[in-house]
Amino acid sequence: MTFAIPHQQRLSLAIAALGFLFLGVFLLYPLFNVFGSSLLDPEGETLTLANYTKVLGRPFYRSAIVNTVSIGLAATAITTLLAVPFAFVLARLPIPGKAAILAMAALPLVLPSFVSAYAIVLLLGNSGIVTQWLQSCGVGFGSIYGAGGIILVYTLTLYPYVLLPTIAAFKAVDVSMEEAAQNLGSPPGRTVWTVTLPIVLPAVLAGALLVFIETLENFGVPFVLAEDLPIFAVEAFKLFIGETAPNPASAGVLGVLLILSTTLVLLVQRRFLASRRFATNARQVPPLLKVGRGLQAAATLYCWAIVILALVPFFAIVVLSFLEFRGPVLHGNFSLDNFTGLFDRSLRPFANTLVFATLAAAFVTLIGVPIGYVVARTRSGVATVLDVVATLPFAVAGTVLAIGFVVSFNSGPLVLTGGPLILVLAYTVRKVPFAVRSASAIVHQIDASLEEASISLGRSPLQTFLRIMVPLMLGGILSGVVLSWVTVASELSATVVLYSGPWRTLTVLMFQSLEGGGAGTATAAASILIVVTLLPIALLYRLVRRYELS
Amino acid sequence: MAGIVISGVSRSFGTVRAVDQVDLTVEEGEFFTLLGPSGCGKTTLLRMIAGFCELDSGEIRFGDKRIDKLPAHLRDIGMVFQNYAVFPNLTVAGNVAYGLRARKVPAPEIATRVEEALALVQLAGYGARLPHQLSGGQLQRVAIARALVIRPQVLLFDEPLSNLDARLRVSMRGEIRELQKSLGITALYVTHDQEEAMSVSDRIALMNNGRLEQIGAPAEIYRHPASRFAAEFMGTTNLVEARTLGLAAPVWVSLRPEALRLEADAPAGWPRVAGSVARVEILGPITRLDVKLGDGTVLKTATLDEPQRQLVVGAPVTLAFDSARLTVLP
Amino acid sequence: MRWLVTVASLLGALCVGGTAQAQKKLVVYTSNDSTLNDLVFGAFAKETGITVEPVAAGSGVVVRRLQAEKARPLGDIIWGVSRSLLQTNKALFEPYASKNIDATPAEYRDPDNLWIGNNLHLLVILENTKLVPADQGPKSWADLLDPKWKGKIAFTDPANSGSAYATVTMLVDLWGGGEEGWKKVGALFKNLKVLNRSSLVFQGVGNGEYPLGISLEYAGPMWAAGGAPVKVIYPSDGTTASMEGVAIIKGGPNPDSAKAFVDFINHKDVREMILKATYRRPTRSDIDLSKLPGGMPPMSEVKLLKYDEDGWTAKRTKTLERIKDVLQESR
């Protein structure tokens, strides 16, 4: 054999090859079709960077970049600072109602951000219910519009991204490490700081990265709350499909810049992790710490406060759905009209949402988990490139990917437009990073010698992956499934471009109702979505709990 | 069952020659140890045999069968890891049965073989437990049972005792040695602990910087080190110029502490050197002494505890040495 | 491996799903809101037996999709998009002379019958009468320049709204045209809150987030009918009407249903039904507004400005850049 692939790398390379194939066809190819124009002159003939210098030369877009990055950094920092202690408390302290907190913590992701933003304006806007109540008590506060409001909403909706993987990581910490540190004379507080935190750092970083990228990409929240503060994703959206003058070349510039900055963040994170790779060999879930009553009460209060605050828009929507709307106008009387109005129509959107979310979550897991494994286990250029490519979907606004899909799969060898599969594939591509990140964070914590032991006992690498790694990663995989399912169920930006005919989803229904003066129907549909999403979340957490107890 | 033949094996990581042209034969049924400081290449060599690390050149055979191109899971090896690598999601019995299931052994046979293997490592009755309910020593026994039960051609040990406490280490190494001998399996053992290596091995290969320094029976390497490195790594020694000991040849020699005695305890014919006590360390049964000679050379020696004897730092003392036990180093 | 086959066949079914229906259908790309869509599609199905499969989104999205599907059109009708979008995408449409063209003034239809206008949006000022007493509100565009309105007027980013673009360019012309006009528009922008979507403007005025809003006529009666304190101000210095229309997509899958829809949508009864429910001012000149709800004045009572829509459409890219600069300078 002159060109032999070393047998211990074959599995990784096979996974990488399949991963590249999928991402190449359903991510890079559509993106290339969309962004190609940013590198061409107006006639579309010669390559040029003129579009870039032109966009970057405008103070408006430069301030958009500055605003977006500052808001993103602030939101990421605050989110992380809130979520890491939260995760520690849930993983290691005895506090009441843990299961409920866990289940509720994933809920903010259920609500599409445009619905949250609508609820927040009704509550905290210039004449919001809470604002007026506060003013009548003599308390005024700044406007919900602008950077502060956007950061607030991001923090309250995105913290589960950090919380969920970090809990899993805290539970996977080998308690003997902490014991060792305490034997060495380190007080418990210091032990957490110097031993436990560095071990969970990869998971925290992975979550923080998701938050940061999500803030770069999200346009639902700034669309409503930014007023005239220029925000990158909003401007890119307008340039792509703005009603008046779509400008694909300039939009492509913004899209490419967004992708480049994500790649940069990702590479920095990878480099940082490469020098700090901590494998622990946890044999058991670490025991709960014994703490004083005061601390326990404070921890309980802390967790419940965050969960409840994050769910305020949620409760607001549920309450609104039982109030009377005349056209778009809210009246304070109890009414079931919103629901009867909703059920008079076809129930097809509910079914679509359920089926799409389930299929997409399954695809995401099947594709993302093996990629996450390779990314965490292999130290080679291939793994780095795979990691970057598999995380790119986070940097790609749903609208942009969807346009790429339409352009790429409306004719030619692979025709997907008009059917439901194109939606499932778009969701899969968009959510693959969830599975990759959560799986790789867990793999970082599983000692490689477990795999070697299995292989030396006669199981092939593939069987070893299925029999040893998958069971050990199950907690992480399941939390990834929950995240994907929930966020697919609330996805709007790609759906609205790709759906057709009977394949309308619940979020599309909500969006259209809200836009069209049917706010009542929208709130009713949102309430239904909440209920529908609660079920699988509850079920999955039950499974996770049973798995962790056994 | 087979011996291991390693010929001309090399491997580099970047510019570092981790394993450099190693030739080695482990006999069938032999307990063979790779000994050396960390980074000497012993673990890389072991992982090459196990199939977790590629060879740049050379070949490895089990008996007549070349295995270095074989995927790791087809090599029929039992391996014991430093951190046990016991599967946390399986019971003790599940761990031990793991390799048998991979080999599609019928279920009833698996049950009896798992029982036997657990009995062999003194864990009979522990089958239903989960790994987190076991101590470190018990985990390593599970790992050993798991490696033995598949009746591998070769048993590999990668520093299996270094995570255990000192007392357990001593008793476990005796057990490992006994098990290996009673089963007659070829074993390759990696350690950086010289005493452990000497205690368990039929032969030892001493490695340094990716090369083999010396191969031989433990006593042979100890008594006749082929190099300064071998002399120093295998226990304590005094490396001195022959002239210091009153000998004419212009060479360096190694003189083990036990070949030196206080003048009063030594046979009459041994040559003498005079100096003063530089350090005294009373360890119970023995007392360690550093003696400073006239030219500043320090010799290490030890005596059995003797309550009447007064050894104080600075006191003049005369030592005698057994010139038959001097090793001249190249 | 049998499960693989099962999965594959399921996926196959998903891929082609939804094409097997026997009954007549029609795919409409619409940028109208869901209230209007539901109303019209329901009535259309009742009258013709044709089921409508709507694809509803903002007009930018709808048009991008239309363009992307040029090679294999999936839709039959595009409905509810502005005159300038219809004009710029003419090449994608199929000509059809609707039965109702005679009642529609010539200025609201294409000479080659590639598209036909359905309804008109007058550019107006909305006022929240709870925040601003009815008699203290502005009467004209010029009144909006008063510094007392600073930060109190909601407006839509012209980059994302055809009507907002029309408002700005109309005001440039009204206020002297050229540099003089732009200078006054710059002064107006100092008072504006520029929001991202037109629905945010009337939601904002209706819910009391902003006292004033520059918006489309229909939003006023719609919110007022729901009980919100919203009043429409027809500026005394004049305004203009932006038109929305319908067109048949060239090469669409259901051409006959498409023609039926174009006939249906401009029918007199249908226009009256739409006005009653959603306050869309029809292009047809033969409907008596005074007998219908909403209190909308007839066109003859509204002072209309001359507005060169095609001219401003032609120089849109440059103008939008200029607006971005004006916006940036006014912050």
What is the topological layout?
The complex is a heterotrimer of chains A (550), B (330) and C (331).
Chain A: H1 10-35, H2 50-56, H3 59-92, H4 98-105, H5 113-124, H6 129-136, H7 147-172, H8 175-183, H9 188-217, H10 220-225, H11 232-241, H12 248-274, H13 293-310, H14 312-321, E1 323-326, E2 329-334, H15 337-344, H16 348-377, H17 381-391, H18 398-409, H19 421-444, H20 448-456, H21 461-489, H22 495-498, H23 506-515, H24 519-549
Antiparallel strand pairs in A: 1-2
Chain B: E1 4-13, E2 16-26, E3 31-35, H1 42-50, E4 57-62, E5 65-66, E6 77-80, H2 92-102, H3 107-120, H4 136-148, E7 154-158, H5 166-183, E8 186-191, H6 194-200, E9 203-208, E10 211-216, H7 218-223, H8 228-233, E11 238-241, E12 252-255, E13 260-262, E14 272-282, E15 286-293, E16 298-304, E17 316-321, E18 327-329
Helix pairs in contact in B: 2-3, 2-4, 3-4
Chain C: H1 2-16, E1 25-30, H2 34-48, E2 51-56, H3 59-68, E3 77-82, H4 83-88, E4 93-94, E5 115-128, E6 153-156, H5 162-174, H6 178-191, E7 192-195, H7 198-206, E8 212-216, H8 219-225, E9 230-233, E10 241-249, H9 255-265, H10 268-278, E11 281-282, H11 309-314, H12 316-330
Parallel strand pairs in C: 1-2, 1-3, 6-7, 6-8
Antiparallel strand pairs in C: 3-10, 4-10, 5-8, 5-9, 5-10, 5-11
Helix pairs in contact in C: 2-10, 5-6, 6-12
